[in-house]
Amino acid sequence: MKFLCALCVLCGLVSSGVALDREAFTFTKYDLEIRLEPEQQRLGARGKITLRNDSAQPQKIAVLQISSSLAWRSIKVDGKAVQFVSQPYASDIDHTAALSEAIITLPAEIKPKDSVELEIGYEGTIVQDGTRLTQIGIPEDIAKHSSWDQISPTFTAVRGAGYVAWYPIATESADFSEGNSMFQVADRWKAREANSSMTLWVGIDAGPDDARMTVICNGVGISGDTREGSSHFHWAKCEYDSFGLNVPAFASGKLNERAIANGAIPLGIYFLDGHEAGASAYITTANSIAKFVADWFGQPKIHVAIIDLPDANAAPFESGNMLFVPMKNEDDKLVEINLVHELVHAALSSPRPWIREGLAHFAEAIYREQKQDGREAAVDFLNLHRTTFVEAEKDVVAAPQKNPGQPLATTFDESYYRSKAAYVWWMLRDMVGDDTLKQAIHNYHAADDKDPKYIEQPLTAAAKRDLGWFFDDWVYNDRGLPDFRVLAAHPWKGAQTTQIVTVTIENLGTAGAEVPFTIRFAGGTITRRIEVRAKATATTRVEVPGIAAEVVVNDGSVPETDLTNNVFKITEP
Ligand SMILES: [Zn+2]
Question: What is the pLDDT of residues 142-151, one digit of tens each?
Answer without folding.
Answer: 999 999 999 9
